[in-house]
Amino acid sequence: MAEIKAKQVMELRKKSGAGIMDAKKALVASDGDMDKAMDWLREKGIAKAAKKSDRIAAEGLTNIAVDGNTAVIVELNSETDFVAASDPFKESLADVTKVLLENKPADLDAALASKTANGTLNDDLISTTQKTGEKVSLRRFAFVNKEDGDNFGVYLHQGGRIAALVVLQGADEETAKDVAMHVAAVNPEFMTREEVPADRLAHEREVFKEETLNEGKPEKIVDKIVEGRLNKFLSQICLADQDFVKDPDVTVAEYVESKGGKLKSFIRYEVGEGIEKKQSDLAAEVKEQLK
């Protein structure tokens, strides 16, 4: 049996919202596996599915730029939010976005090798690093193309902490921006139910089944309850089925259709999502410097 450390218990508690004892029981039952422990808590009705965005860590900003039928979404990282708010960093982000849109590189290596007035994009980032005193790095970017009859929806939240880029077939720019604002706020994982992988559906169905059985529901109605819960889960993670934030009486798909449009695609960037942030111990750092 794996040794369960207090740090693991606290991490699971924060991730699940469960109590300390429940978190420890889940880790013991799962032999220290965090994902299995999370499933154990959900099956017991103690925790709900955690969103990927809970792991947000690194600092920086995102940006979006549009040129005709092409748009680019970008994330530029720094070590602290103080630097991310500085003029040199914001200027660098604008320059990086412009270079990407002009050159349309195929990948990160090609992007960094893109020619600029001062050499390459990588040279420019090194220069920004020297100005700010922190490493400034291009983490990711993506290009999105649309047809002439389509509309881009662009929205930056909190000055660029979150960026959402949407494409609608038909409708208009105002509708597309409304949907982009919804994407930024609600963070859907998929466009439609059909895009959800079969293994993900099977996993969630099994978790809901265990949860329902543990609640003592009659076995003859368990499958019906499970399907109801699965449908509710899908309506929460799929953009088309989500209640529209500006009018919860309709789904996002219904809202777009009422404006003569159809959902085509979306991308959402949130600064640092999925990056493990280095944890600092201020007291330890001061003590080390005093030696």
UniProtKB/TrEMBL annotation:
Principal location listed in the UniProt entry: cytoplasm
Q: Does the UniProt entry include the keyword Cell division?
A: no
By its UniProt entry, which PROSITE patterns does this protein fall under?
EF_TS_1, EF_TS_2
InterPro entries in the record: EF-Ts_dimer_sf (IPR036402), Transl_elong_EFTs/EF1B (IPR001816), Transl_elong_EFTs/EF1B_dimer (IPR014039), Transl_elong_Ts_CS (IPR018101), UBA-like_sf (IPR009060)
Tell me the ranges covered by the Translation elongation factor EFTs/EF1B dimerisation domain, including all copies. 71-273
Instruction: Cite the Pfam families for this sequence.
Output: EF_TS
Cellular component terms per the entry's GO annotation: cytoplasm
GO MF terms, alphabetically ordered: translation elongation factor activity
Spell out the residue ranges making up region: Involved in Mg(2+) ion dislocation from EF-Tu: 80-83
* Annotated compartments: Cytoplasm
**Sorted alphabetically, which keywords does the UniProt record give?**
Cytoplasm, Elongation factor, Protein biosynthesis
Q: Which residues cross the membrane?
A: none
| Protein role | Associates with the EF-Tu.GDP complex and induces the exchange of GDP to GTP. It remains bound to the aminoacyl-tRNA.EF-Tu.GTP complex up to the GTP hydrolysis stage on the ribosome.
Which family does this protein fall into? Belongs to the EF-Ts family.
Tell me the NCBIfam families matching this sequence: tsf
Name listed for the protein in its UniProt record: Elongation factor Ts
Please give the organism.
Limosilactobacillus mucosae DSM 13345
Q: Which gene encodes it?
A: tsf
